[in-house]
Fold MaoC family dehydratase.
Amino acid sequence: MAGRYFDDWNLGDRISHEIHRTVTETDNLMFTLMTHNPQPLHLDVEAAKASEFSQILVNGTFTFSLMVGLSVGDTTLGTLIANLGYDKLVMPKPVFIGDTMRAETEIVDLRESRSRPTAGIVTFQHELFNQRSELVCQCLRSALVSRRPQ
């Protein structure tokens, strides 16, 4: 079990996640098709060339999902009861095929659960950066996390 229990977190804890991931054309194509997203900027090379970006844009929901996925091993793997919500999602820069992503997480809030004495609520601020260290995605994730077993 790699994730941390509620009791193991402190406000301000920060993690630079070790796993990095280069986004491939297949990643973008499969995710876009799997989610029934017909946006030509994700699928049509000619339409993308005619856009201000001049190339295929990686599907933003893939970018968001990758950011959260890169964080799970260090944060909630084996300790998560439920994700309670995502908030303040922003994507200040585009992601392109061939970009290599890395994620960082900071603990921005910790609260005892009123309804579950064996759990607490952790609010993570996840950030995703490309190979140029440009912020490409950020959000807050609130999660109900188990307390350390007694």
